[in-house]
Write a structure and sequence with these properties.
heterodimer, A: alpha/beta, Rossmann fold, 3 domains, two-stranded antiparallel ribbon, disordered C terminus, B: about 525 residues, globular
Chain lengths: ~425, ~525
C-alpha cells in the first residue's frame, strides 16, 4: 500500500514568482512589443489582455551549440521505402541541420504568449509616467451601484419589504378566512358576559358551550393560518448596475500636413489613447470621431487618420469647423458628453489662429474637456521652456487659456510629457459632475 | 463471459479506494511475476496547472526560483492552451521514496496504466540501472533540493536577486559542461559535511595571502624548459585538463565569493543528477512501457480489468509507441518509447521463440527461455548506446525499416550509406548506438590551462569531432558567461580531435560583461 497524497488543494501559482522574474527580465523587449502593438491596433483596443510575440533576444539562454552547417554527421531514420545504398538525396533547403538535430530543443525563435490586461497597462503606463493613483483608477474595472429591481422571495432580513409582505399576508388571511382579532374578542366578551350571570339558565349553558366550541375552533384556525406566513414575505431585489451609464464622444483632431512625421503621430496616438482610456472607464458607450486637417478638414476612419498622408498647407480652423458640423449633425450636446483632443505641431497659416480662438469659444460651450497638445522636437523643448512664446497657434490659445476651466494645453516632446495635460481631468476625479444623460 | 465480480474498478471515475486497490494488484504482478525491485512509492495527485509548474521547474518538486523557469512555463502554457501540445499523464522523480505524479484528469484506466508505467517501470529502472546507482543518490536528492532552495533564497535576501540571478545565468549557460562524464562524482554529502566544507572555504578565503604571488620567479637562463615544467606542474596542481567547467570554476575561480561558489555547486549537482536520465532515455521509457504493457495484459488475463478499460489502455499505449516514418509530417526523430518498447519485446521474443537469425546474432540469449532475467540484466547494466549496440536485432531493423544517411557539410547531397539489409545491419546498428551516446555527441570543451601568475587567462579547448563546430553567436555569449564567473579573459581553441589541427580560436579579449 503506497502513500497517496492529494496535492490538488496545494496553493496554486507555484510558478508565479518565476513568471514575474521573467517579465522583469524581458521588460525592455516587452515594452517594445507593447509599443509596436499600440501603434498597430485601434485606440479603443489598447488595454485589453494581449498576445505578445517577442524574439528571444534579451531572454536567450546561450549554451554551446553545434553549428548545423559544419562537420560530418550520420543519421538513422525509420521508414525506408525505396532507397538503396549509394542513393543520393538533395539536401533540404535552409540548412541540413534541421531534421537530424532533434533534441536541440524547441524552436523558440518567435516566442508568443499572452499578457494579462494589468501587465499590458503597466508596460504602457510606464512610458507615460502616470502617477500611481491614476494608474490604479484607470485599471479599475467598472464600478457597480445596486439599483432597485422588483421583489424577490429570498434575501436577507434587512431587505424585507414590509409593505409588500403585509399586503400578501392580508390577502392570504382573507382568502383563508383567518378569524379576525375582533371576532375572537367579541366571542370572548360574550362568553365572559354569560359566565358572569349568577344563574345561567339551560339556554345560557347551551349557548356558552356553543360559544366555547366556536372560540376553540377560531383559536385553532388562527394557529393554522398564521398572521404572517413565509410565503408572504417579499424582499427588495437589487440589481448591480454599472455606474458610468452614459455616452461620450471623443473628437480626435490632428494636423496631418507634412510637418507631422512618424514620431509626432506616435506621440499623438498615445495622447488619444490615454484620453480614450479615461473615457472608457467613465462612460458605457464611447464613440470616436477622427478629424484630420491640412488646409481643409475631413472626418476619416482611424486607419486613414494615422497612416495616410496628405499634402497641403495648414489651416487649423477648418478642423474646428468640421467638429462643430459633426456635433450639430450627430452629437447633440444634450445627449452626449463631448471630449476633444487636438494634436498639432503648432504650425498655422497666418491670420487663422485668431479665427481658431473665436471658434474655440463656441466649441467650449459644448465640450466637457478640451485638451490641446503641441508636439515639439526634443531640442525645442529647451527653447520653449517658458510658456508665453511659441508658435502662432500656441500664442493664440495662450490668450484664452484660463477663460475656461476645462481647457488644457501643453507642449510635449516625449511620452512622459503627455500626462500633465490630463492632470486636471484625473485630479477632478472624486468630485466629478454627474455625467449628462 | 467474464465475471464482473473480480473487477478492480468499473467506469472511468477514480477514487482513492480504487487507486489503492489497483496499486496492490499491480504490485502483486510487478514484484511477484516480473521480479521488479522498487523504491517505496509516494503517489501524488495533481492538477493540470501543477503539472505545468512541475514541467517548467525541470520536473523537481522543489526548485529554486529563476526567470528561466518562468520563461519555460510561459512557453509550455502557451502551447498547451493553443492545443499544440498535450500534457504528460504522469511525472516521476528519481528519489527515494519515488514520487509519482498522477494527473487528476486521468480516467481510472489511465491511472492504472500510469501507476504500472511510472511507479513500477521507471521506479525499477531508477533503482537498478548502474548509471543511476553510481551517479545519483536518490535518497539525498530531495533534502538536497530543499537545502538548495533555502540557500538560494537566503542568498537573494542577503545579496539581492540581481546578483544571485547573474551567477545562476552564467552557471546555467555551462550546465551541459558541468557534469563528470568519466570520473565518478563525489556523493552528496550530508548537511553537516556541507556546512563544514563551507566553513573551510571561508577560512581559506580569509587566510589567503597575496604575498605568495609576489615571489620572484626563477631566473631566465633555462627558461624554456623551466616554463614547460612550470606549465605541467601547474596543470597537475589544478588537475588539468578538467572536463567539468562548473566544477573547475567553483574550485578555482579567482573572483567568486563563497556563496557564489555554493551556487555553482548547486547547479552542478542538479546537472549531474539529470545526466543519467539523458543517457538512458530509450531504455528507461522502454522498460516502463514494457512493464505497463505486460502488467495490464496480465491484469486483463486475470479478469481484474474490464474489456473497456483494456481498450482504453491499448489505445493510449498505441499512441505512445507510434513511430512515424522519416517523411511523415509528424516525424520528430526516433520515438524513444517506440524504439525502447520494441526492443524489450524483441528481447522477449528472442528468448522464447528465436529464429535461426537470432541464434546467429544473439547466441547467449536466444532461446534461453528466461526473458524476465534477461531483461532485468539488460536494464541493470546498460545505457542507451551499449544497449542498442548489444540488442538491436536485424528483425527490428527490418521492422522499423531503418536506414543510414551520411551528411557531410562539404557536399550538397545526403547519401544513403546503409539500409536494412544483410550488409547494412551492423552499420545501421552502430550508427544508431552512436547517436545515443550523449557523452560523445555533446560538445567536448575542457579547461586545459590557466596561468594563475600571469595574465590569468583561462584557456579552454574544444575537441572538435567530425568537424562539427560551434554556433558562433551562442558560443561567444557563453564564453562571456564563463568570463563572468572566472573574472578574467577566457579563450577557446577548437582542435580537431583526430588530427590535432587547430581549427579556430576565439576569446573574450577586451569586451567586458
Amino acid at each position: 500500500m503506497p502513500n497517496f497524497i492529494d496535492r490538488r488543494l496545494n496553493p496554486k501559482d507555484k510558478s508565479i514568482g518565476n513568471r514575474q522574474r521573467f517579465l522583469k527580465r524581458a521588460r525592455e523587449e516587452l515594452k517594445r512589443a507593447v509599443k509596436e502593438q499600440v501603434k498597430s491596433i485601434g485606440i479603443a483596443d489598447v488595454g485589453g489582455g494581449q498576445n505578445v510575440s517577442m524574439p528571444t533576444r534579451g531572454v536567450g539562454e546561450p549554451t554551446f551549440q553545434p553549428a548545423g552547417d559544419t562537420g560530418d554527421r550520420e543519421r538513422v531514420l525509420p521508414g525506408n521505402r525505396e532507397f538503396s545504398p549509394g542513393d543520393r538525396l538533395r539536401k533540404p533547403q535552409g540548412g541540413a541541420g534541421g531534421k537530424g538535430g532533434a533534441g536541440t530543443g524547441e524552436d523558440e525563435d518567435d516566442f508568443q504568449f499572452s499578457l494579462s490586461q494589468d501587465e499590458v497597462l503597466d508596460l504602457f503606463f510606464e512610458d507615460l509616467e502616470l502617477p500611481d493613483m491614476v494608474k490604479l483608477s484607470l485599471k479599475e474595472t467598472l464600478t457597480f451601484k445596486p439599483r432597485r429591481a422588483g421583489y424577490a422571495v429570498t434575501g436577507s432580513p434587512t431587505n424585507i419589504n414590509v409593505g409588500k409582505t403585509m399586503r400578501n399576508s392580508h390577502g392570504r388571511r382573507i382568502a383563508l378566512r383567518r378569524p379576525k382579532q375582533a371576532e375572537v374578542d367579541a366571542l370572548a366578551a360574550e362568553i365572559a358576559e354569560l359566565e358572569k350571570k349568577a344563574r345561567p339558565g339551560p339556554k345560557d349553558k347551551e349557548r356558552l358551550a356553543m360559544l366555547q366550541a366556536e372560540l376553540d375552533w377560531l383559536e385553532r384556525r388562527r394557529r393554522r393560518v398564521p398572521f404572517i406566513d413565509t410565503v408572504d414575505i417579499r424582499f427588495n431585489r437589487f440589481e448591480q448596475q454599472p455606474l458610468p451609464n452614459a455616452s461620450a464622444v471623443m473628437f480626435c483632431l490632428m494636423d496631418v500636413s507634412a510637418s507631422m512625421g512618424e514620431r509626432e503621430k506616435d506621440l499623438a496616438k498615445r495622447f488619444f489613447v490615454l484620453l480614450h482610456m479615461f473615457l472608457r472607464r467613465r462612460y458605457e458607450r464611447i464613440e470616436i470621431v477622427f478629424i484630420r486637417h491640412t488646409d481643409e478638414a475631413r472626418e476619416v476612419d482611424e486607419e486613414t487618420f494615422f497612416y495616410s498622408t496628405q499634402s497641403g498647407g495648414t489651416m487649423v480652423s477648418t478642423a474646428l469647423e468640421e467638429m462643430l458640423r459633426v456635433i450639430e449633425a450627430r452629437y447633440p450636446a444634450s445627449e452626449w458628453n463631448i471630449y476633444a483632443a487636438q494634436a498639432s505641431d503648432g504650425d498655422n497659416i497666418s491670420g487663422d489662429s485668431d479665427r481658431c480662438v473665436a471658434l474655440l469659444s463656441t466649441v467650449m460651450k459644448y465640450c466637457q474637456y478640451y485638451a490641446y497638445v503641441e508636439i515639439i522636437d526634443e531640442r525645442e523643448s529647451e527653447i520653449f521652456a517658458r510658456t508665453d512664446n511659441g508658435t502662432s497657434l500656441w500664442r493664440a490659445y495662450r490668450t484664452v487659456d484660463g477663460d475656461w476651466p476645462n481647457f488644457q494645453m501643453t507642449r510635449i516632446a516625449k511620452p512622459g510629457d503627455i500626462y500633465p495635460v490630463f492632470r486636471k481631468l484625473f485630479a477632478k476625479q472624486p468630485t466629478l459632475r454627474q455625467p449628462r444623460k | 463471459m467474464k465475471s464482473s465480480g473480480k473487477l478492480l474498478f468499473d467506469g472511468s471515475d477514480w477514487n482513492f479506494d480504487t487507486l489503492s486497490r489497483t496499486y496492490d494488484a499491480i504490485e502483486e504482478i510487478a514484484l511477484g511475476e516480473l521480479k521488479l525491485d522498487i523504491y517505496p512509492n509516494q503517489m501524488e495527485i495533481i492538477s493540470s496547472e501543477q503539472m505545468l509548474d512541475a514541467y517548467s521547474s525541470v520536473g523537481m518538486p522543489l526548485m529554486y526560483q529563476h526567470w528561466s523557469f518562468g520563461k519555460r512555463f510561459v512557453f509550455e502554457d502557451h502551447l498547451y492552451r493553443k492545443g499544440r501540445r498535450g500534457l504528460a499523464y504522469e511525472l516521476v522523480i528519481n528519489s527515494n521514496p519515488c514520487i509519482v505524479y498522477l494527473m487528476e484528469e486521468n480516467t481510472m484506466a489511465m491511472q492504472a496504466l500510469v501507476t504500472a508505467h511510472a511507479a513500477f517501470g521507471h521506479n525499477h529502472f531508477f533503482k537498478n540501472n548502474y548509471l543511476f546507482r553510481q551517479w545519483t543518490d536518490a535518497s539525498a536528492i530531495l533534502s538536497y533540493m530543499e537545502f538548495a532552495k533555502k540557500y538560494i533564497t537566503r542568498c537573494e535576501e542577503r545579496h539581492g536577486t540581481a546578483a544571485v540571478e547573474a551567477i545562476l545565468d552564467s552557471a546555467h549557460a555551462i550546465m551541459d559542461q558541468g557534469v563528470f562524464r568519466y570520473r565518478r562524482p563525489p556523493r552528496l554529502s550530508s548537511e553537516k559535511e556541507r556546512e563544514r566544507a563551507r566553513e573551510r572555504l571561508e577560512y581559506e578565503e580569509q587566510t589567503f595571502n597575496d604575498l605568495w604571488r609576489t615571489l620572484p620567479t626563477s631566473g631566465s637562463p633555462k627558461e624554456r624548459a623551466e616554463a614547460e615544467r612550470d606549465a605541467s606542474e601547474r596543470k597537475k596542481a589544478l588537475n588539468l585538463p578538467e572536463e567539468n567547467l562548473l566544477y573547475f570554476l567553483e574550485k578555482t575561480s579567482l573572483i567568486l565569493e563563497p556563496w557564489q561558489r555554493e551556487l555553482l555547486r548547486i547547479v552542478r549537482v542538479i546537472a549531474q543528477y539529470f545526466y543519467p536520465q539523458r543517457q538512458t532515455k530509450v531504455m528507461n521509457e522502454g522498460c516502463a512501457t514494457f512493464t505497463h504493457h505486460t502488467i495490464m495484459n496480465r491484469m486483463f488475463e486475470k479478469d481484474l480489468v474490464s474489456e473497456g478499460t483494456m481498450l482504453e489502455v491499448l489505445h493510449s499505449h498505441a499512441n505512445v509507441v507510434f513511430q512515424p516514418g522519416f517523411d511523415d509530417p509528424r516525424y520528430h526523430g526516433m520515438n524513444p518509447y517506440a524504439l525502447g518498447f520494441a526492443m524489450m519485446q524483441d528481447i522477449q521474443r528472442i528468448c522464447t521463440e528465436p529464429t535461426a537469425e537470432d541464434r546467429d546474432w544473439f547466441p547467449e540469449i536466444a532461446g534461453n527461455g528466461d526473458w524476465r532475467a534477461t531483461l532485468l540484466d539488460a536494464w541493470a547494466n546498460h545505457r542507451d548506446e551499449s544497449f542498442i549496440l548489444q540488442y538491436l536485432s536485424p528483425a527490428l531493423i527490418r521492422k522499423f525499416r531503418l536506414f543510414l544517411l551520411t551528411d557531410s557539410s562539404g557536399d550538397n547531397y545526403l547519401e544513403v550509406a546503409s539500409i536494412h539489409n544483410e550488409r547494412g545491419y551492423q552499420a545501421v546498428r552502430a550508427a544508431l548506438a552512436r547517436n545515443y551516446d550523449i557523452g560523445a555527441n555533446q560538445q567536448d570543451i575542457q579547461v586545459v590551462d590557466v596561468d594563475l601568475l600571469g595574465d590569468r587567462q583561462l584557456r579552454l579547448q574544444h575537441n572538435v569531432k567530425n568537424g562539427v563546430l560551434l554556433e558562433e553567436a551562442s558560443r561567444d555569449a557563453t564564453l562571456r558567461h564563463i568570463r563572468h564567473l572566472w573574472g578574467y579573459d577566457v579563450s577557446l581553441v577548437g582542435v580537431d580531435a583526430e588530427s590535432g589541427e587547430e581549427l579556430y580560436e576565439c576569446s573574450t579579449d577586451g569586451d567586458m560583461l
